[in-house]
């Protein structure tokens, strides 16, 4: 008898099947997926641990209590960091018409999480042919995705090829100490154009975008179990207190508090 993941695979690019299907996954080791796309929209959620989702538009981080929404037909890949327990809801393309049109990160409500986990617990037969009660749960999932607030855990990617070269180098090594003039030379672009186009194409100035790369990478490092001091040093912060202060201003809590909260969920 096929398991739920095999059943889900059969409906990824089909107009048939229920509006919402769901599954959970537990990973003890890090795992990465190749770039792929499907006709169903997908919502990645985390119960424990962290994953990053890479799209053409940028990189989205999925810490605990948040989820990434990917509309249908968007190419994406994913990677987990440390032990991970998460869930995914797969939304039929027709049901995505009233959902966000662009990838985004949303704060997960307890109701959304429990509704998805309920659907993920169904047998393959029930997942394909849900009862009236289960259809109500599907409707709850759609309503929650529609109404929950968008959170700023994304990192928009610039479109200009010169800026992309700079952006990818910074993502590969967030601690790189080069200043804007050096990065402009690296990208074969003037520093003035670099500064102007970064704001136009990402909504962040270059310095803020660079800070965000470091902060999002620090979420991954926290999930991997690294100490706050080691993270601050590895990412090139002037001091541990500078890292903690920026983290608190951005995420509303200290790195240590974030780690404790994520482990408690």
TrEMBL record:
Stored Pfam families: HTH_18 (PF12833)
InterPro entries: Homeodomain-like_sf (IPR009057), HTH_AraC (IPR018060), HTH_AraC-typ_CS (IPR018062), RmlC_Cupin_sf (IPR011051), Tscrpt_reg_AraC-type_HTH (IPR020449)
Domain of life where this protein originates: Bacteria
Residue ranges constituting the HTH araC/xylS-type domain according to the UniProt record: 164-261
Family annotation (SUPFAM superfamilies): Homeodomain-like, RmlC-like cupins
Coiled coil: none
Single annotated GO MF: DNA-binding transcription factor activity
Keywords: DNA-binding, Repressor, Transcription, Transcription regulation
UniProt protein name: Helix-turn-helix transcriptional regulator
């Amino acid at each position: 008898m096929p398991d739920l993941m095999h059943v889900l695979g059969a409906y990824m690019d089909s107009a048939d099947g229920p509006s919402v299907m769901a599954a959970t996954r537990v990973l003890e080791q890090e795992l990465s997926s190749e770039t792929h796309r499907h006709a169903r929209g997908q919502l990645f959620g985390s119960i424990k641990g962290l994953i990053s989702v890479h799209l053409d538009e940028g990189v989205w981080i999925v810490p605990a209590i948040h989820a990434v929404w990917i509309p249908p037909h968007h190419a994406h890949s994913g990677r987990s960091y440390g032990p991970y327990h998460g869930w995914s809801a797969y939304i039929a393309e027709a049901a995505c018409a009233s959902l966000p049109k662009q990838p985004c990160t949303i704060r997960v409500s307890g109701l959304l999480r429990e509704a998805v986990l309920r659907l993920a617990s169904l047998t393959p037969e029930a997942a394909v042919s849900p009862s009236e009660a289960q259809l109500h749960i599907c409707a709850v999932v759609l309503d929650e995705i529609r109404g929950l607030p968008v959170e700023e855990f994304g990192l928009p990617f610039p479109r200009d090829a010169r800026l992309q070269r700079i952006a990818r180098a910074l993502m590969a090594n967030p601690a790189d100490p080069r200043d804007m003039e050096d990065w402009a030379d690296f990208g074969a672009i003037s520093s003035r154009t670099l500064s102007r186009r970064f704001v136009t194409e990402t909504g962040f100035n270059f310095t803020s975008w660079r800070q965000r790369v470091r902060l999002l990478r620090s979420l991954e490092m926290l999930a991997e179990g690294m100490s706050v001091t080691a993270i601050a040093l590895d990412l090139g912060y002037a001091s541990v207190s500078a890292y903690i202060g920026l983290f608190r201003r951005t995420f509303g809590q200290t790195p240590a508090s974030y780690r404790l909260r994520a482990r408690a969920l």
